[in-house]
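Before relying on records like the one below, remember that each one covers exactly one chain. Contacts with other chains, cofactors or solvent are not represented anywhere in the record.
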Amino acid sequence: MISPFFTEPERHEIKEQLDMLLQAANCSSDGKVKIRKAFDFANNAHMGVRRKMGEPYIFHPLAVAYIVAKEMNMDEYAVCAALLHDVVEDTECTIEEIDYSFGDRVAEMVQGLTKITGAFGIAQSKQAVNFKKILMTINTDVNTAMIKIADRLHNMRTLDPMSERKQFQIASETLILFAPLAERFGLYSIKTELEDLCLKYYEPEKYMEIKELIGKKELESENFIRDFEEPIEKKLNEAEIEFHISSRFKSVYSIWRKMQKKNIPFEEVYDLFAIRIVFKPKNGIPERTQCWAIYSLITEIYRAKLDRLRDWVGTPKANGYEALHCTLMGPKGLWIEVQIRTERMDEIAEKGIAVHRKYKETNIDEWLKKIRDSLTKYDVSAEEFVLDVIDTLVPEIYVYTPKGQELVLPKGATVLDFAYFIHTEIGNHAVAGKVNYKLVPLNHVLSSTDQVEIVTTKNQIPQKEWIDYAATQKAKALIKTALRSLIKEHSKKGKGIIDRKLTELGILPNSRTYRKLIEAYGQNNKEELFSNVGAGILDLEGFNKILRENTPKKWVQYLGIQFIQLGLNGITRKKPSEPSEPSQNSKIDTKQIYFLKENGNLEYHIAECCNPIPGDEIIAFIDDNAVSVTVHKKKCAKALHIAAQHAEKIVGAKWGSHKALSFLAVLEIRGIDRLGLLKDLTEVITMQLNVNIRKVNVASHDGIFEGYIELYVHDLDDLKNLIKKVQNIKGVEVVKRIENHTEI
C-alpha cells in the first residue's frame, strides 16, 4: 500500500514507477508477487523519509530496482534486494527480518549492500572497507556488486543537491572504482553514463562545452553518416547477409579524455562517432569467420587503418566482450570506427554478465577468481586490496615467459611489473629485461604478445624511483615494502655511526644534538638523517665543526625564504622544493589560499604531481596527523584516487589574492628550428613578460626543435598570456602546459 502521507502527485508517480518496474522485471507472475511484497516492505520501512532534493525516499530504491531489472536484466531476487538495499542501514529493520520475509538469498545480498558501521582509524578508509565488503560477496553471489553499481548510477543521476565537496568525493570514487567495475561486468552503457556524470561534476564547464559541440556535430553529420552507410548496406545485401546498421557519437567523457591525452581541441578529435553492424550468423559457419568476411567486404569499399584493427572475436576481452573493430577512411578524408558483431555478441555487449549466464560464457570467471584469490590469499589492508582490484579493472595485455607461458597483465604494465608478477625476489633483484630478445630498461612498457625475460643480479636492491617505473599497485606495494625494510636497516646502521661519533667527542646523543645535525645537513627529519648516513648517501663532512658551532645563520636565512606566514587562520604555506621567485612587479599580499573550514594552525603544500597555480580548480587533503594540507588540481589523477578512498581527508579550498608568490609551471614547446630562436624565446619570457625561468631544456634535430621550459608564474591568467606570446614567436608551432615531464 502506498503511504497516505505522500501528496497525490507523489502517490501517482510512485504507482507509475512500481508499474514500470513490474513490467520490466524478467520473471514469472510469482516473482512479480515477491517484488510487490518487497516494495511494500521498503515503503513501510522508509515511511516519512525524504531525500535531500525533497522527494520521498522510496523513489530511490524504486529507481535502483528498475535499473537492475531493465538495464541489467537481473532476476526477481536481485530486484527484491535492490528495493530493500537501504532498509537495514537506514531504518530499524534487521537482516533477520529480511531473511524471514524473503529468504536467505535476498538477505545475503542486502547484508552485502549494507555499509560497514563502527570506528575507523585515521589511516583506515571507510570507502575502501565498504568496497572490499561488496567484493567479498563475489565469493557467493556477484549480484551484490551489480546492485551496488545500479545504486551508484542513480546516486550519480541525482547528485545535484549535494555539496561541491560531496560531489567531488562521490564522482572520484565512481570514476576510480565503479565505472571500471561496470565495464568489467560488460555493462558498457552504464559505464559510459557513469563516466559522463563524473565529468559533469568535476569539470562542469568543459562537460557542457563538449556536450554542446557534440550536439552541433550530430546535426552536421547526418548526411555524412548516411553517405558512408549506403555503400556498406548495398554490399551486405548483395552478399545476402541479414543485418542492421546503427551509428552513435562517442561519449562526452571519452572525447574529453582523448583531448586531454593528446592535448588537442575538440576540432582535432577525428573519430567522433562509430558505426555498428549487427548481423544474424548463418548456421554451420563459425561466427569469427563471418565477422572477417564482412570486414573483407567493407574494406573493398573503404581503406582500413591497420594499426586500429582490434580482433575481440578471436581473443575476447576478459569480461567476455566480442566484436571485430576496424577504422575506415570515409568520405571527406575522415576516419570512422566500425564495429562488427553477431546478434549474440551484441546482446552480451549491451547487457553484460547477466547474459553471459544465458550463453554459458565463462570469460568473466577468471577475473572473479582473481578477486577471490586476493580476498583469501593475501593479508592486506582494505586500501591495498582496492588498489589491487583497480589493477584488474583496466584493459589487459597478454605476454609470455621465455618458456612460452602466457601471463595476463594490466595494459601499461612495465618490465618491472612483470618481474614482480613472477616473484617478489625476482622483482627486488631485477636490473633489466629482454623483450623479444632485445635488452630494455625496467620501465619499458610492455605490449600484447611480447616475450619477456628478466635479467637479475644478487647485488641489486630496490630503488626509490622504481615506484614510478611500476604501473601496477601490486608491484608498487612490494617495492614500498622492500624500501621500508631497507630504510629501517639503514636507519639502524646510520644511528650507530652518528652515536659512535658523538661518543668520541664526548657529546650526549639527544634530540637537540640530532636537530642541529638535521638542520646543518639539510635533512627533513631524524629518520632521513639516519637512513642517508647508513646508506652512504651522506658522508657527515664537517661533523666536528657543526657540533661546536651555534645554530647556523645560513639556515635562519633559508628558513625565511622557505616558509611564508599567511594572515589567515594561522595557516602556513611550505613549498616542497626550492623557494619560489616572484617577479619584480609583484604586489605583496599575504592571503594565498582560503580553507573553507577551520583547521587550526596548518601548513599547506603545493602538490608536485600536478603543480596547481592560482586559477586552476583545486582540491585539498589534510594529512593523517591533521597538521598539514596538500593542494592538488581538481582533475589530478592522484587527487581522484585519494578522494575515492579517503573522503574524510578532503578540505575545501579556493584561491584568494595571489600576487605575493610565484608558482612553478612547465611548458612543452616544439617547432621549426632557426638561428636565434632560443634568444627570442628567453627575451620574450624574461624581458617582455618579466617572468623568471627556472630551467630551459631544448634539443634540435633534423630542423625540428623540442623541449621543456620550467618557469614561475603568478596565476593561470599569467600563464595563458605567456603561452599566447610564445606562440607568436616565429618558428614556434606548439606550446602547451604539462604536469610531469621527462628530461630529453
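Residues 480-551 form one domain.
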